[in-house]
Amino acid sequence: MLEKTVMSTTLERLKQLFVAKFDSNIEELNPTTTLEYLGLDSLDMIDFLFDIENEFEIKIPDQEFRVRTIQEIVDAVDRFISEQRIGVSSDKQ
Description:
This protein has 93 residues and is mainly alpha-helical. The chain has helices at residues 2-7, 10-22, 42-56, 70-86.
């Protein structure tokens, strides 16, 4: 049951983080919504990276996190989750 929830919620979890962090309206958050449209600057994104790392229990290398839309964040988070689960034994947290 948990696996089904995990499979379908990267976007939903990110939406909830956006709403909590930036007081965004969840209806305006969809895969094609740009961060510029939401009014996020680079400092907002750095701060939000920490929230994403905590929520998904991953480490995001700053230089590899160049995103413009919510879907690009979802894709990056999914990629980091996949990469870091494979390399769990070498993780040095």
